[in-house]
Write a structure and sequence with these properties.
Elements lengths: L3 H12 L4 E7 H4 L9 E7 L5 H12 L15 E9 L2 E9 H8 L1
């Protein structure tokens, strides 16, 4: 299981990638319902252009050289991309969310 400190540090590193405006913990970990084998869901909220190359470099640093991320839009219009990573034996899902698209819903 990844500690809260490790997740906080990872979120801070992710938030420094150009385009990323926030990283939010989701799923069972966010609800404090996780178990030993639970995955970790990280919402990667971005605005404008997401620097997928820099985000991919970070993914390879923390999850190994085979870590891969999609381009925005690869998964569809709402949860629009990301990657399924293995960090220290824990499944960690990076899930892109376009802030501009969400803003369209409240205008």
């Amino acid at each position: 299981m990844l500690s809260d400190e490790v997740l906080r540090d990872l979120g801070q590193q992710m938030s420094r990638v150009p385009g990323v405006v926030g990283v939010l913990l989701g799923g069972s970990r966010a609800r404090a319902e996780h178990a030993e084998g639970s995955d970790v869901d990280l919402g990667v909220y971005y605005e404008g252009s997401l620097d997928v190359e820099s985000l991919g470099e970070l993914a390879r640093q923390v999850a190994g050289p085979r870590a891969q991320l999609t381009l925005p839009g690869a998964w569809g219009p709402w949860v629009d991309g990301g990657g399924w990573l293995d960090i220290d034996g824990v499944a960690v899902d990076w899930i892109y969310r376009d802030v501009d698209r969400g803003a369209d819903l409240v205008e």
